[in-house]
Amino acid sequence: MTPPSGPVRSPDGDGAAGTRVRAARKEIGLTQQGLAAAVQVSRQTIIAMETGDYAPSVYLAIKVAKALRSSVEALWDPEPPGEGLPRAAAAP
Amino acid sequence: MTPPSGPVRSPDGDGAAGTRVRAARKEIGLTQQGLAAAVQVSRQTIIAMETGDYAPSVYLAIKVAKALRSSVEALWDPEPPGEGLPRAAAAP
DNA sequence: GACCAACGTTAAGTCCTCTTGACGTCAAGT
DNA sequence: ACTTGACGTCAAGAGGACTTAACGTTGGTC
After folding, report:
1. 3-state helix vs strand vs coil in chain A, percent to 5
2. From first to last of its 92 residues, what are the pLDDT tens digits of chain A?
């Protein structure tokens, strides 16, 4: 069975990252428009990011994490550190 | 002038992230197929990531960074830490 | 009431991230 | 010579990340 293609998305699809982004944004007192301006995207993009199951490009995620004084892993990692050791990569 | 839409990409478009991903992969002795299997994407995706100006989704980037025992910022941040303080976000 | 800021939804369009399949090249081993 | 593994390129297709524009709702102020 062929998996659907398209950008890799959150494994659980519950929009948890969007909730964390919104919380971090409010933590530093930014509006959605303010964050949008800070990272040079449209406000619609910020709304989609906060309200939906959305997978931004890594470059946008980095800009957002910096603007929110956080890190990409803190905002988007489905398995926060301490929840389990990284899976050992298979050797060739 | 309307900017072209589509995923946010590397600001300098020089494929530097791909070079870092490849170096990190070789550092731990993985083949492209091995990394592809570890992060559950196709080998073509890994090739595109390493050889082109490519902006993976943040979720794929996190999986790759973990498999390579690194971090998203280390592999994809165009401005590594220490190159400048984060820009202060505008208050509402 | 009017006005404003902030937010959420809808729509249509452009661009790119992924997928599979196939082919070719290179290097090492037998 | 042949075989195998590793890598890079090309093609076509599906899905979605972004864009602008517009509208509606909510809450606060005057």
Report:
1. 50, 0, 50
2. 456 789 999 998 888 999 999 999 999 999 999 999 999 999 999 999 999 899 999 999 999 999 999 999 999 998 865 554 444 433 33
DSSP state of A79: S
Three-state DSSP state, A57: strand
Closest residue to B57, CB basis, from A7, A34, A66: A7
Q: Name all domains of chain B by residue range, CATH numbers in brackets.
A: 16-76 (1.10.260.40)
Give the integer Cα–Cα distance in Å for B45 and A60. Answer: 19
The Cβ-side half-sphere exposure at B62, using a 13 Å CA radius, reads 24
Q: Is the CB of A90 under 7 A from strand C?
A: no
ipTM of the shown complex: 0.89
Q: B51: alpha, beta or left, given left = phi > 0 and alpha = psi -120 to 50?
A: alpha
Residues in chain A within 8 Å Cβ distance of B86? 66-67, 69
pLDDT one-digit tens code per residue, B49-60: 999 899 999 999
